[in-house]
Design a protein that fits this description.
The protein is mainly alpha-helical. It has 20 helices and nine strands. The strands form four sheets. A three-stranded antiparallel β-sheet has the order 3-6-7. Strands 1-2 form a two-stranded antiparallel sheet. A two-stranded antiparallel sheet has the order 4-5. Strand 8 and strand 9 form a beta hairpin. The two termini are 14 Å apart. The model has no long low-confidence stretch (mean pLDDT 96).
Length: 440
Amino acid sequence: MDDEAATSLLEEAREVLALNDRQGWTVPAGDLYPHQWLWDSCFIAIGLRHLDIERAQTELRSLLRGQWSNGMLPNIIFSGKAERQHVDLWRSWVSPYSPENVSTSGITQPPMLAEAVARIGQKLKLPERRSWYKEMLPALVRHHEWLYADRNPHQEGLAILIHPYESGSDNSPPWISEMRKHSLPHWIRLIEKLKLDGPVNLFRRDTKHVPPGQRISNIEGLTQWSAIRRLRRKAYNSEAVLSRSLFAVEDLAFNCMFIRANKILKDIAKTAGQDLPEYLVDDMAKTEAALEQLWDESAGQYFSRSFVSHKLIEEPTIATLLPLYAGSITKDRAAHLVQLLKRRRLFSTSWPVPSVPLTSSYFDPYKYWQGPTWVNTNWLIIDGLKRYGYDDEAKVLADKTLQLVAKSGCYEYFSPLNGDPAGAANFSWTAALAIDLLKS
Ligand code: GLC
């Protein structure tokens, strides 16, 4: 990308972040997502650190407003003003652990906070870095402890997710296939059979901003809504939820980010001159080892696993490439994943990396997490490629990603075939990560 194009992209991205700034925290996209989201704010802070380091720190501090007393970081902190119906759907106050005076969801999202804290740390001189780490460490430790205490009931090491929203990729094929197998209530099956889902449109706000073909279907949306109500009825108590649910997944992408976050957390603690509890360090080692259980030798790839049946969910997605980001796999395994990334039939499209490979029966270039290219997953893959020494491949993908955003704008996602923009316009993490790729 030449200097002129880079300057204009930087300016555009800066404007998007300014537009979405809510004084101390940032919305993912003003119309569609009017609250604060967990992993969004982490990616946003990673970009903001190049513009205004204090503002980037504030973005992360503001996430801690929502932290539950058991350590959970919720995926959404509701903005005081907007969208009362979201607050009422989740009713976080039904849990004794939810914070007072702040309404949140009752579930989490991928643990990207340690990464964001460390990326800001890289920009600070050592004394400031130490005090920044010391400030953030207690919340980070509590969050990771919670993931182990609450989402690892058999102590096998892999975090278990209880709602697709927790994966960050709401309609990713493994979740949709599990949902269809185990979680479609009878009344929703009936609505589907009789094709009576039309009225659902009256209650959907996403499709008022984005064409319906680019979002999850009414039936999927309805099922996810009813799954939230079930979690709410159980007061977000995961023991109660897991004891009677067939809908719980050891999500591959989430656990890859968890492994990376654990490693970073250890580095943060070391720089801060503090020891992590021994049991936590032991748990972290278990997660790295357990990732290998998600490898399917005959398919030659990693998959998510159903927590209930303990079977791999053989639906290929971009998550199979994220062990590169985890950084814990062998060099041979990494080389194999790079081959998959380069295969034209799978992930090497004109505007990579599609969220599912071209061969997936789910593939649709515009449909949310079932085909489109997302800038955050590209960023994770680029980082992983570098970690394994694939600098050329990382550079090619970074350049392609920047060209895509320069050509089509800071959209939420893009067709991997022709680069057309899709989803929400003025999407914060696209802007923030474009800034990071430009500046790194
Ligand atoms: C969608 C995405 C999720 C993101 C949220 C806000 O729900 O699937 O990953 O955090 O939007 O941008």
